[in-house]
User: Which sequence fits this backbone?
């Protein structure tokens, strides 16, 4: 069987084109693998759950009888220590859990706007 003369360059061109389209698609085209798509979905879901629980944190802070003292302690703490201080207040511990959530502490701090911003 004799193949036409253009077959070899045509096959090479198709392979190079497929590789180029794949590289461009994954770098600039927004294509993702199923693994990275799952990671993005998990991250987004965790972030949304944290944002949904911020009102619980704020409610716990409003119901706390030592709120004024604890807010003063939070304001006095450096920006690097505030998350730990927030976790020590107990406001970032959701009902039914034993340990405070670091993400919830960060989100609650942002919502409290201790710096006046």
Assistant:
């Amino acid at each position: 069987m004799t193949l036409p003369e253009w077959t070899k360059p045509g096959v090479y061109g198709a392979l190079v084109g497929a590789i180029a389209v794949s590289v461009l698609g994954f770098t600039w085209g927004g294509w993702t693998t199923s693994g990275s798509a799952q990671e993005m979905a998990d991250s987004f879901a965790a972030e949304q759950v944290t944002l949904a629980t911020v009102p619980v944190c704020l409610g716990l802070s409003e119901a706390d009888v030592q709120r004024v003292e604890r807010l003063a302690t939070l304001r006095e703490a450096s920006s690097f220590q505030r998350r730990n201080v927030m976790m020590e207040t107990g406001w970032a511990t959701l009902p039914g859990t034993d340990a405070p959530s670091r993400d919830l502490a960060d989100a609650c701090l942002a919502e409290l706007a201790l710096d006046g911003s």
In short: The two ends are 78 Å apart (CA to CA). The mean pLDDT is 91. Residues 36 and 42 are 10 Å apart (CA to CA). The chain is about 70% helix and 0% strand.
